[in-house]
Amino acid sequence: MGEELGYKVKDVSLAELGERQVDWAYMHMPVLRRIRRRFAETKPLKGVKIAACMHVTKETAALMLALRDAGAEIALAASNPLSTQDEVAAYLATEGVSVYAWKGMDEKSYFWAIAKAASIGPNITMDDGADLTVMVHKLLYGEEGGLDVEAARGVVEKKDLKNIWGGTEETTTGVIRIKALSKEGKLLYPVIAVNNSLTKFLFDNRFGTGQSAIDGIIRATNILLAGKNVVVAGYGWVGRGIAWRARGMGARVTVVEANPIRALEAYYEGFNVSSMADAAPIGDVFITATGDKDVIREEHFKAMKDGAILANAGHFNVEVSVEDLERIAVEKRIIRKNVAEYKLPDGRRLYLLAEGRLVNLAAAEGHPSEVMDMSFSNQALAVRALVRKRGKAKPAVYRLPRSIDLKIARLKLEALGVSYEKLTKEQVEYLHSWKA
Ligand code: ADE
Fold first, then answer.
1. What percent of the chain has pLDDT over 70?
2. How close are the terminal C-alpha atoms of the chain, in Å?
3. For a pLDDT cut of 90, what percent of the chain falls above it?
4. Average pLDDT of the chain?
5. Kindly report the CA angle at 285 between 279 and 288, in degrees rounded to 5?
6. By the 8 A CB rule, do 175 and 195 touch?
7. Residue nearest to atom 5 of ligand 1 (CA)
8. Is the pLDDT of residue 244 over 60?
9. Quick one: which of 229, 260, 280, 348 has the most CB atoms within 10 Å?
10. Fold identical between 3-196+367-416 and 207-357?
11. Hey, where are the domains in the chain?
12. Is the pTM of this model over 0.85?
C-alpha cells in the first residue's frame, strides 16, 4: 500500500497501466473530451476545491482530469469498497488528484477515505450514493455515532466544511437520500441530481447497468444465460435494462415489482411477473435492482433451488440479506473470485456474487465508457453550474435544465455520426398553435 502526502492507493507503480485505461475510456467519451478541451481553455473552475466520492474507474478518471484541467483542486474517495480500479487510482494520484481508494478496503477505511476527501475543505461535493453528503451533514450538525462519524474523527473538522457552495449526486439511491434530507429541512446547500437528467438515467441506468450487471455475473460465474430462469427484482430503469438484456441473451425472465404500474408495464412488455415468494423456487439467477433492503431474505433462500445464484445491481449491499444468509448457512466457502458458496442445513447450495455489492462494478468494470460519456458530461456541467450560481441558489435538490440535456444529446449524436430530423419553421409553429 503506498501512502504518500495527498493520496493513498494500492500501488502507485501501476500508474502507467492506469493511464492506458484512461486513454481507452477517453477514446469512447467524445462529449466529455470536448468539454475537457473547452474547460482547459476557459478554466471555469479555477481555484475551486472539489471533494468527490465516486467509483474510481477509468471513466471517473476521465471526469476528474476534465475538472482538474478546468482549474479545480480535487480529492477523490471511492464510493464502494470493491469498485476501485487500482491502476486508475494510481494514475490519478500521479496526475495531481488526491485519491484515497483501493479495491477491497474495509468499512472503516472506506469512511476514513471519504473523510480524507472532505478534509480538502471543499467548495463542491460530488457524490455517488450520498455517503459524502451525509457525512458532511452529520459533522456539520454535530451528530454523534455511526461508522462514518467515527471514521471522520481527527481527519476532518467542522471548519473544513464551512465553505461548500453546492453538490452533485450521481445515482437514484443518492438522490432519494438527499431528498429525504431536504424534506426534513436539513439540507445545507443546493445539490444537483445529475441522475435526473434524461441523458443520464435513460441511458446509464438502463443500457449501462443492463449490460454491465450481466457482464459482472458472467465474469464472476461464466454461466450460460440462455435457457436460465432469471429473476429481476425491480422494474425501474435499472431493472428494465437488466431484464431486457437478459432476455436478449435467451434467458426466461421473471420480474418482481412492488409498484403495480411498473408490474403491469413488465407484464405487457412480455415478462413473467410474480412475487418474490413465487419466483424463489424457480429462479436460477436472481438480480436485485430495487434500492430497498431485504428484497431477498431468509424465507426466499429457504425456498430456492440448489445452485441458485444471487447478484445485486442496486447501490448498497442491502438488497440480498447477507445477514440472513450468513445466519442460516452451515458452511461457507469461496469458490472462485467473487463467488461465495453458502451451504444450507439440508445441503442445498446458494451462490452469492461479490458479497452482495454492486455486481457490475465489483465483478466487472461498471458501465461502458460510451454511456458514462453522457453521465459525466452532465456531472462536469453541473459542477460548472454550481460554481456560476454560488451563493445564489437556496438549499434544495435541483436538476440540470433541459437545454443542457438536449445539448448533450445533440453532441452525442454528432459524435456518433447520426443525423436526425430538423423541423421546418412551419412545423414548429404548427406544434405550438391551437388554431390549426
Ligand atoms: N457507475 C456505473 N458504472 C460506472 C463507471 N464505469 N464509472 C463510474 N461510475 C460508474
1. 99
2. 71
3. 97
4. 97
5. 75
6. yes
7. 366
8. yes
9. 280
10. yes
11. 3-196+367-416, 207-357
12. yes
Beta strands 309-312 and 349-353, pairing class: parallel
Distance 305 CA to ligand 1 centre (A): 32
Which three cell numbers mark 84?
Answer: 476501485
Q: Is 366 in the pocket of ligand 1 (CB under 6 A)?
A: yes
Give the span between the Cα atoms of 300 and 281, in whole angstroms: 8
Q: What phi, psi does 252 have (nearest 5°)? A: -95, 115
What CATH code is assigned to 3-196+367-416?
3.40.50.1480
**Cα separation, 322 vs 355, whole angstroms:** 8
Q: Is the CB of 60 under 6 A from ligand 1?
A: yes
Type of residue at 253: V
Multiple choice CATH, 207-357, 3.90.1150.10, 3.40.50.720, 3.30.413.10, 3.40.190.150: 3.40.50.720
Residue 48, amino acid? V
